[in-house]
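Observation: inputs received (chain + copper (II) ion).
Thought: call the complex predictor directly.
Action: predict_structure
Action Input:
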Amino acid sequence: MKNSTILSCPAALLLACCVTRLSLPAQTTRSFTLRPAPGKAVIAPGRTVTNGWLYNKKLPGPLIRVREGDRVRVKVFNDLAEPTTVHWHGLPVDLKADGVPGVSQGLIGVGQEYDYEFLAKRPGTYWYHPHIDLQIDRGLVGALIVDPKNSKADPPYDREYLLLVDDWLPGAPVAGRDPVYTDYLINGKTSAGQTPMLVKKGETVRLRILNVSGATAYAFTVDGHTMRVTHADGQPLFPVTTKAIPIGPGERYDVYVTANNPGKWSIAFANLLDRSRTLVRAVLAYASATGNVPPPNYVPVALRTAPLLTYAQLKNKGTGGGLFARPTRTYDLSFTMGGMFRYVWMINGQAFPNASPIPVSYMDKVRFRAFNRTMMYHPMHLHGHFMRVHGSAGGTTAPLVKDTVLVPPGSMIFPGRLDVDFLADNPGNWAYHCHQIYHMGAGMMRLVEYVGRDGDGDGLADGKDFSPASAYPVTWTEGLGGKFAVGSRVRLVAQWKPGEQVFWFVGLPLAQGLSLGSLGVLGIRPPLLYLGRTGTTARNVATIDLPIPGDPSLKGGRLGIQALATQASLKPGLRLSTRSYLTLR
Ligand SMILES: [Cu+2]
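Observation:
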């Protein structure tokens, strides 16, 4: 094995692709400012919390409300004591506005400002939050509503209330274990702090329910009433009626309630896994009603006993697209935990950032088949795309469309199952992760990475390109986790298919892969460092001693590492692996 041979960079590989942009008709631009900073919040009469990090001193942050087709500009001033970013949850924006550090942007440093700009393409109920560490669990959450251009697009209503449901920690969030919450909030207040939501008899009330919690999945009900569910994750449904709805972190439901039962009623939320106790409640109060509001600990019968709404009841009403008869890529994703004493949550045995990207090609018809081998619900969120849910009332033609799906719990032998399809129509690198943020922080995340259209050079962008079975599988078994100092040495252990020769390259990651025709797609900027060649070994395992360049400008970034291998079974016999990353400090 040869170490650290410097390879000259082929100039052609450095050319960036040109992208033609269509000019858009004149549109309204709406500007907002967000200023995340430490702050205090009154969560109930006489109860002030001082451990909050808030947008614009508000808990939750200010409502950002725009119209479909608007161009939205948000200036973010980071007044926190640590870096941050903002992600626009559910709204498919261009990659550069997606807010995932190290993937779509750098960090917004302490005292720095950053401009987000995106098009409000799809009407609906969305939200915004940081996409770094556990900052969501400090109170950095807010609603983002896109009203439809056609005001008659949604069923008519007389009044509207937003309910942002949150779980609250007494101190700072701690990574590596499940959090213990002391309070549950609706719109930043405990049950004791709720201002009744007023209605008049005969009115139709639209409630937009957003679960902005760090880790809690709830069931909720509007006591004394039936809910008509009109939107899931902002996307329109053929309305269905129900008494109780499950909602995981990141999910949203719009429900309409007909005010036909005067009184003061609890809009009650329980833990999805324990519906015997109300964690927090708002109050729906008829203007004519006298008497007391329901006590905070009151548990409506429907909360305890009503059948929960299921995805199987829901049918999309918009233009979400159907399920694919023949997906061009199918990925089986197995969710597991790291064992009794390790708080590690994995997808196919890998914990992010020590995890391979999931490659897709532009306009691929992608299927994700989730196998949940854990006893927890996992709200799986895909950035930049809408997922079409299998097994919904919409069948194959009008399936339920969501950006966050709650995958049910299971066991090793009987995994919880949920399949989704999505069209790869938004090029970039996109996070796919559990929205229980402690799971995400402990590895339950992958990048969905767009690669070239035709990986094997057979003239077709089809399922053979980069499918896990045919892509050159180089598995890093040791060494990619953690962060590495510039100028240090890293010991990597890799394993690959038998009988091959492998060449290793290290360099800066490219946002879009460069297609090298029959070789595949190179995901790194040609090579900062060529690592060398490894011949076939008995076990096809190599230990690689990699010197990280002592270049201070690399600090905080990532190095891509990728393999080029001979593979006798494939013509013309060479293939690039998908890339992995080293995180630098
Ligand atoms: Cu999870």
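Thought: report the result.
Final Answer: Residues 1-24, 452-473 have pLDDT under 50 and may be disordered. The two ends are 28 Å apart (CA to CA).
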